[in-house]
Each structure stands twice: as structure tokens, then as C-alpha cells.
Design goal:
Elements: E1 22-38, E2 42-56, H1 65-75, H2 84-94, E3 100-113, E4 120-133, E5 137-150, H3 152-157, E6 164-175, H4 181-190, E7 194-195, H5 202-213, H6 219-232, E8 236-245, E9 254-261
Antiparallel strand pairs: 1-2, 2-3, 3-4, 4-5, 5-6, 5-7, 6-8, 8-9
Helix pairs in contact: 1-2, 4-6
Length: about 270
Amino acid sequence: MINTFPPLADVQNMPDNRQIPLRKVGIKNIRYPITVLDKAKGTQQTVASVNMYVNLPHQFKGTHMSRFVEILNEYRREINVKTFAKILTEMKNRLDSQEAHLEVDFPYFIEKQAPVTKTLGLMEYGCGLHGTMTDQFDMMLVVRVPITTVCPCSKEISDYGAHNQRGEVRAWVRFDRFLWLEDVITEVEKASSSEVYSVLKRPDEKFVTERAYERPMFVEDVVRTVCQGLKALSGVTWFAVEAENFESIHNHSAYACTTQCLNEKAVQTQF
């Protein structure tokens, strides 16, 4: 097809004489429908919030913003850990840059059974893939998992009952082989007093309440137990974990975090 449009001024391609390179330029918070891998069903449709950046050398006034969206549209049906390096390489090549950064955050749904009645419901988890391509490829899988905790101290000192609350665990994981979102989420949920469910009937509520009471957890316990679980997952090379309890009887949250590197040579993810 012959382009019949008249030539227009390309302002962003003009030179800049201020001698200031920019580390990241691009588009931020664009919402876009994507397809991600689902361990149970193969694929899952969702809507992501996407950030795409490249570096900008000092001599250029601006970058080509429209090319980011063109690339996103081309790959929207195959955004996953297997294609992330390819997308970042495409960004570098199309935008003539030395660095490319891609952050894709999305709601991810897993069908869960209630523990006793087996009633089905969908649970939402905040998930993401964050990657950078320079001369090496680096990528992290991100999960945000809701949990319930019962306070060990409250249980110990009270004649009956103990205060409990919802919390959230956030984990960033580097790896050197394929890793399912579901496997990371499972390890986080196992570290709580109780999982959170979307549907609970009365027998389920009884079970969840009593089970949580028998598994009291400080926020410090949650982080340490998540670390144990992630270290046991095949392929994990590095992770950061933070947990926040939204305290039910205090006007503050309880918080803990840590970072561990399991393989110094494999921090840069390779596929």
C-alpha cells in the first residue's frame, strides 16, 4: 500500500542540545486486553495495566510513543514468561534503544473450592510480569495474595478468642525456568493462618475459623514461611517478599519484608 499522506514535521526526532540522557521514556498505565497462561485452563483473558519504556540518548528530543502501542497490540494475545524477552527485544529494535522496560500488571482469577462444601467461586489475585532488556534479560513474576492471620499473642493471653484480620502478601520472584503463577500463589497461601475464599457456606466458615485459630501467625511468621515455600520451588533464583496485616484492633498495619538471592549467577533470567 502506497502512503499518500503529505509529509509532516517529526518534532520528536529533532536534536536536543541540553546533553541530558533520559533513563526511561514511554507510556504508562495504558489498559489493554491480553491473554495470559492459565495452569488449569490453558489461557485466560484479562485486562492489564501496562507500562512500556526505553532509554533516550541525550541527542534526541523525544521517543516514538505510537510504536509502544503498536508493539503491545501485536503481542497482546501472547504476553507470558515465554515471550517477554521477545517483546522487549522488539521494543529495543523498533525504538533504536539500548534498554527496554516492560511492566504488565493484571487481575488473575483462580477457581477455588470452599474447604468443606466444595462450593466453587472465583478468587482474584493481583499479578504481573516486570522485565528489562539491556545486554541481558531480567524478569520478575509478581503476585499479590490476600490472606487471613490470627495473632499468636492475642490467642495466648486471652481467656477466649483472638483478634484476626485480613492481610496481603506481595512477592517478586526471579527464576531460570518456567514458573506458574498458581504455584507461587499456593506457596503464599500455605503460609497464612487461613486462605481467603470468595464463597463460604456455614460449614466452611466453621472450618476456616477454627483452622485459622489453630494456626496463629505474626506477620514475621508469614514472611519467613513464604520464604521457605519459594526456596522449595524449582527454578527460583531470587525473591523479595513483604507482608502487611491490616490490623483489626490497631490504627496501623503490621509489616515485614525480606529479600533472598538463591543463585548469584542466575539473577539475570535467561530463556
